[in-house]
Amino acid sequence: MILFRQRFGSANVTSLVERVSRFTVLLKSADKRTRPVIDKVSAAIRALPQPARRSITFDRGTEFVSWPHLQAEIGTSIWFCDPSAPWQKGTVENTNRRARRWLPRERDIGQLSDHDFRDRLNATARKCLGGKSSVEVFQA
């Protein structure tokens, strides 16, 4: 989860990253309580094809405490990283670092559209994907 300055309230961005293609879904939310975050994650996961949603790995944030409801709703296996082990979700940590280039802590994400979130990272060609964008690899 990407957090912002307190003056913007509980604004946050939850990042979902498919490991093979690095296809990223960024979900902005005005609230970091579990129900709003899980509802947005559920809607985003349901929109993906089944091979792209076989499992989800979360960190141990309190926003994911309702994970049993999510698992029951979408039928996807849920896993958690060990405490203080961010390397177990390295792809997401790398993606969050890339997103911080255009989402600094001082940014008011309420000013951004969902379109800005959806396309920014996925349209960029990446060296680890052989010069292809995440969208190209994900669609293939």
Key traits:
140 residues, alpha+beta, three-stranded antiparallel β-sheet, two-stranded parallel ribbon, 5 strands
Shape, principal axes of CA atoms: globular
User: What strand line-up does the widest sheet have?
Assistant: 1-2-3
User: Which runs of at least 5 residues are low in confidence (pLDDT < 50)?
Assistant: none
DSSP helix count? 5
Helical residue percent? 25-40%
> What is the overall pLDDT average?
85
Q: Helix and strand string, N-terminal first?
A: EEEHEHEHHH
Strand content: 15-25%
Radius of gyration: 15 Å
Largest sheet report: 3 strands, antiparallel
Total number of beta strands: 5
Distance between the termini: 28 Å
**Structural class by SSE content:** alpha+beta
Model description:
There is one protein chain. The chain has 140 residues and is an alpha+beta fold. It has helices spanning 34-46, 67-74, 90-99, 114-119, 134-139; strands at 2-3, 12-17, 24-29, 55-58, 77-80. A hairpin with an 8-residue loop joins strand 1 (2-3) and strand 2. Helix 1 (34-46) packs parallel to helix 2 (67-74). The two termini are 28 Å apart.
Summarize the structure.
The chain has 140 residues and is α+β, with helices and mostly antiparallel strands. It has 5 helices and 5 strands; from the N terminus they run βββαβαβααα.
Sequence-ordered SSE layout with sheet pairings:
Layout: E1 2-3, E2 12-17, E3 24-29, H1 34-46, E4 55-58, H2 67-74, E5 77-80, H3 90-99, H4 114-119, H5 134-139
Parallel strand pairs: 4-5
Antiparallel strand pairs: 1-2, 2-3
Helix pairs in contact: 1-2
